[in-house]
Amino acid sequence: MMNRARIQRILIYAAKCVSGVLVVLFLSWLLDYQDVVWVLISVMLVLSPDGSDALTLAVTRIKANVIGAISGFLLLLFHPNLLITMSIAVCITVVLCNLFNLEAATRTALAATIIVMTHEAGAHLWDTAVGRVISVLTGCMLGLVITFIFHNRYTKQTAEMILSKTADRGGE
């Protein structure tokens, strides 16, 4: 049997994720931007299921994503062989995350590195890399905004009032 706090945490996390999807898809429709998958992935990597340190964790993940995206992008300058550059970029990303005390977000940084460095056959390497860096950073910012909206004290009070009214009615 799940307790009320756990159900509330699951519902809030699900609402954050759905909000992320809706915001990204709405903005992509508004701006006529087609390559939304990398923005969506970046939003989801920034969002956290736990509300207690959600903003701190979101900022940590954004810092790590920036490190990963920049590492991947800069390594593309040095050598065209993806095997060599991606291996080095992954190592650099891990080391930099450690040096900047971002170990908790190293996996998201590695995802950003790989997102930036991979491209479809026939696609121009630099156009793809720049587009993906922008996608990762945009997704990170949207994830931060969503986290802030869900976890600032005013919206938290409103959500708690709504949930308590629903519980008072017996879940009608």
Automatic annotation (TrEMBL):
Pfam families (UniProt xref): FUSC_2
Cited InterPro entries: Memb_transporter_dom (IPR049453)
Domain Integral membrane bound transporter: 24-146
GO cellular component: membrane
Protein name: FUSC family protein
Presence of keyword Ribonucleoprotein: no
Superkingdom field: Bacteria
Alphabetized UniProt keyword annotations: Membrane, Transmembrane, Transmembrane helix
UniProt keyword Signal present: no
Main location: membrane
Membrane topology (UniProt): Multi-pass membrane protein
Transmembrane regions: 12-31, 37-55, 132-151
UniProt-annotated location(s): Membrane
